[in-house]
């Protein structure tokens, strides 16, 4: 019996095409799970953010590496020591604010300090138009759902702030700013003080006062004049 593919050449062509098609599909099926297993950029960032938020992760020396937290060389150890006195003291000095902002970037939580700075600027607005413009920008950037730099606020604070944005006043963001401030003060600020660059800077501080030297005293015969010997010891 003759081979049907020889009698009907078109079957041979069709079979070749089908074979090539299934070969491509088989390869694609093998590759698809591999692609699906690769986490997206956002997923990678979320995992890394969770890792960096672990307290033990910040005890190492990684913060001192290039590209991470560095403190300006112009900052003296004495100045840095004052940052540890209070969170207010840290934020009130430009160098301290800059260093803390860089630290929050290593934790992927810089939106907190950026929101706080935006609120400080907002309170300096001099007209109703300026208040409205800045309030809208702050709300859309930091507060509304799925905002690009959404800060962590409780439901009540978010609702009160949202209702006030339509007719903003200088105190519109006070409650939200206080919430974020306390979050940084209680959570991020202690870790900043434990970070390697900050500890190293403070450790370089020299003694504030020269150690006191005790002067040795030379006794003279006059020191013993009029002193009666204690004969009970003999």
From TrEMBL:
Keyword Coiled coil in annotation: no
Segment forming the signal sequence: none
Keyword Transmembrane: no
Gene3D superfamilies on file: 1.10.196.10, Regulator of G-protein Signalling 4, domain 2
Keywords: Signal transduction inhibitor
BP GO annotations: negative regulation of signal transduction
RGS domain residues: 86-202
Identification of the protein by name: RGS18 protein
Taxonomic source organism: Regulus satrapa (Golden-crowned kinglet)
